[in-house]
Amino acid sequence: MKKILLINFLIFCQLSFLKAQDLGWQQRVEYEMEIDFDVNIHQFDGNQKLTYYNNSPDTLKRVFYHLFFNAFQPGSMMDVRSRTIKDPDPRVRDRILHLKENEIGFQKISSLKQDGKDLNYKVVGTILEVELDKPLLPGKRSVFKMEFKGQVPKQIRRSGRDNKEGIAYTMTQWFPKMAEYDYEGWHANPYIGREFHGVWGDFDVKITIDENFTIGGSGYLQNGDKIGHGYNGIQDKLPGKNGKHTWHFVAPNVHDFAWAADPDYRHTILKMEDGPELHFFYQADTLVENWERLPEYTKKHFELAGSLYGKYPYKQYSVIQGGDGGMEYAMCTMITGHRKLPSLVGVTVHEAMHSWFQHIFAFNETKYAWMDEGFTSYASNIIEDKLFNENKFYPHYGSFSSYKRLVDMEMQEPLTTHSDFYTRNGIYGVSSYSKGALFLSQMEYIIGKSTFDKAMLRFYNEWKFKHPKPIDLLRIFEKESEIELNWYLEQWIGTTNTIDYGLKSVESEGNGTAIVLERVGNMPMPVDVYVEYTDGKIERFNIPLRIMRGVKQEEFNGISNKQLESWPWTYPEYKFTLEVSPDKIKTIEIDMSMRMADIDRSNNYYPEKENPVTFPYIGK
Ligand SMILES: [Zn+2]
User: Which of 59, 161, 174, 511 shows its CA 20 to 30 Å from the CA of 571?
Assistant: First the structure.
């Protein structure tokens, strides 16, 4: 009996070990594509060989591909959504509805085989639903061969031809792309206009196109010596074969492949000593002087971002004029170029910063836009502040004000909302970019800046190239700080609860002073109280939440720090006393650092302040 129990126990241990390991798998793709492009009719013929590795513990009977270009057809989900959402994106509105036959986008599949056998498939809007000939077993791979034709839509959103600045082709989301399958299942999201999620792998792409066109994009060009166009130190456009060049790109370890082409691109390169080779592609027309200054800023960005968030792991990055604003892709970005310098640098910094969050970590942006856009905004707030030597007291103030406006309008939706499902574009924007950025600046506040900085680098080392989920990041912050943080994720992301703490009273008590704080908002937070005495000395009192089961480390040199008893969050009030009488106290302030997103700071001061300003002593 005992023996059987022991064996059962051992089997149980092994199974649970396997189960824990199971969460660590991810699918893998190897794409080989050959594209023959006709610039006269904006169409291309494509061959795709995709080796798909099922590393999951599941048997797959179906697979799904994205056919993003099909979104640019009248009546598509994207068209209808863009016209019926309460605050339409001015770039889209009803423009898809009015596209003519030769202006729509499409991806038409003419044949699809799995390991040599023809497959049944169905095109359902922007998704290709494929029944497998043979189920794909755990640990096995299949080779899918596809022939397809694409028509590049007139530029409306992100991809397309002839954007408003006259860039011929912005080729993003342009090829039939395998949807991601992970332990949450398939992510065959229809393309409605925003955010992506893809499978990690290697891309080998050959693009045959009119010899006058210069291409910039993902990957490393293998045959620059035969092509020129600014590659391999050859400025000339070398002659092609029958008026065309075949550009051969290889992009290892990415989850997407994008490119742009234009006959009028100027192509310049800045080689960083300890960093990627930076490529710039732009039409040398309007505001060209700003593009000429952009490389020095981009270089500084890569240096700063590398030291703060981990080294950029690829050998190349390209800033390409194209698209309809700014959008991040593998090893490159497409941005519009007719901009003043701060705007041009700002958009480049933001999109290049995405290389970390959208690309190297590759959060599922459709589900967790707040991680992708929010963390990118957080980091670019900091980097822009350094690039322009602004030295702002609190660089995330812009993010805070947008968030606060949303709160004031009572229009919040929880950040757990899938990015396509926010009821308004504006609510998606503020929630993902601004409230998402505040997730990190408040994390700094909760666990302390130096612990936070270490955690970000640890997160990079442990989770790069792995599609981490919110809980994976939270666990890193917990391990680094030894503070329990689940409550923070649940409240800030899963609810629309807001934070408001106030100084209720400051009164003499015996020989000292009694300070009573109150929690006005529904969301609990640890509270830092700064006291400045009449002799100029400043002290910080840190009140952790009881549910944190830990306290933050020292922050801000030169300011003494006193840990007080933890605050059980259900208590509406909290009292502590100072040993000095009220007349020795000049000011008291809740969270002088401003990192806690307190929606009403008017009750944070003693004596009360009409126009709340903070102490000038501390910063970053
Ligand atoms: Zn972004």
Answer: 511
What is the CA(115)–ligand 1 centre distance, in A? 38
pLDDT tens digits, 108-134: 999 999 999 999 999 999 999 999 999
Ligand 1 centre and the CA of 377: distance in Å? 7
Q: What percent of the chain has pLDDT over 90?
A: 90
Give distance in angstroms: CA of 455 to centre of ligand 1. 22
- Judged against a pLDDT cut of 70, whether residue 620 lies above it is answered with no
Question: In the numeric block, which tokens belong to residue 224?
Answer: 């620059």
Q: Is residue 373 helix, strand or coil?
A: helix
Measured CA to CA, the distance from residue 308 to residue 477 in angstroms comes to: 16
**pLDDT tens, position by position, 310-324:** 999 999 999 999 999
Residues, CB within 5 angstroms of ligand 1 (ion): 373, 376
Q: Tokens standing for 262?
A: 């234009």
In a 3-state reduction of DSSP, which class is residue 276? coil
Span from the CA of 331 to the centroid of ligand 1 (angstroms): 15
pLDDT band for 479, please (50, 70, 90 cuts): very high
Q: Are the C-beta atoms of residues 191 and 42 closer than 8 Å to each other?
A: no
Tokens representing residue 234 in the block: 């050859």
Ligand 1 center to 158 CA (angstroms):
12
Amino acid symbol at 80: V
Instruction: Round to whole Å and give the CA distance between 101 and 105.
Output: 9
261-296 pLDDT, tens digit per residue, is 999 999 999 999 999 999 999 999 989 999 999 999
Contacts of 457 (CB under 8 A, 6+ apart): 309, 310
The pTM of this model reads 0.94
Using alpha carbons only, what angle is made at residue 171 by residues 241 and 316, rounded to the nearest 5 degrees?
85
Q: Could you tell me the distance, in angstroms and rounded to a whole number, from the CA of residue 195 to the centre of ligand 1?
A: 10
Distance 197 CA to ligand 1 centre (A): 14
> Ligand 1 mean position to 80 CA, how many Å?
24
Q: What's the CA-to-centroid distance between 376 and ligand 1, angstroms?
A: 6
- Asked if pLDDT for residue 37 goes beyond 60, the answer is yes
Position 393 scores a pLDDT of 84
